[in-house]
């Protein structure tokens, strides 16, 4: 294990030097390096190393390791959980797999980076024996994100189901019944009542995080940025129409405004929303934690409902964001590593822990009605008790995303230039903006 750790440090130094020369994005800051050992005092324990870029994920694996060791005293594990900054971890992992040395037993891979690990023959262990038995009880589109040639390599951390969060106090003041909002047309009409009868706007459109508006609406409309063959489709008619819609709710319908801070995950936005600046937020279920941590004054005022459909009978949700956890082919005991990973995230209890420990919507929908998941907690206390009722209602309306190695290029260019030019500066039309974006992505190697 010492050799693995030493090599990972060396690779990390190389990556940091490269990053310093080439500059880094916002994700490069990430988590600080930290190591935690669970079960280190158990005699005869098999060591498994776990890499992640999210310190919160260690909470889940710590809980799983402790439960495993209690239930399997004859097969204890010593889990070495190592947290690294986002870019450093992903680059270390990719270099380790390519070199054939230094990779951990288990690792998290963020969705936007996952395609990089699927090039050629994946250096990961298939998880089919654990995933296939639960697929008929799960949101399968989230597992397809981490599959190739019939093999499932990654275990998703959540569905990331996108919903609409309504400020009921503002909506009631505006005279709007939120349950009457079925389509985006209904939503726009409700927004006009909000702007006419309150001091708030209906919505905010971001310019630095398309995960919270543009992409989910594109996905719910059965479109994407790439087709199944990986060809760029970002400038297709549906996507252009969708970006035009986002432009129009701001400047034509006047029910929305540019998101303060550029995104709804900024301190500027949290203060704005906490003070009643807008009547609704479009975001995945995992955004609930942002409300609890950063918008305490809205407790008891936020109701969760499905996304408005683009047309009657259309999809009312989209799966956004995600992390797939994998077992590398360098694990000295891959069978144990795979069994433990399945225990931590795929078993019934592990799936329930995704909710009770992390507050995420588990990919296995069969646990959404379990007594454990329905027990009172801080999320029900803040949002009410219908969270999983909404998810059950839309579980079959979540499309698979076509993620490629160029997906990060789409995100970077859209968040840096396209949204700025089309939505804030209005210097380009939606059609022009997306054509420029598509051409930029096609030129990336």
TrEMBL record:
Keywords: Cell membrane, Lipoprotein, Membrane, Palmitate, Signal. PROSITE patterns: PROKAR_LIPOPROTEIN. Residues 429-439 have a biased composition (Basic and acidic residues). The keyword Cell division does not apply. Residues 420-445 are annotated as: Disordered. InterPro entries: Bact_solute-bd_prot1, SBP. Coiled coil: none annotated. PANTHER family: ARABINOSE-BINDING PROTEIN-RELATED, POLYGALACTURONAN_RHAMNOGALACTURONAN-BINDING PROTEIN YTCQ. This is Extracellular solute-binding protein. It comes from Sediminibacillus dalangtanensis.
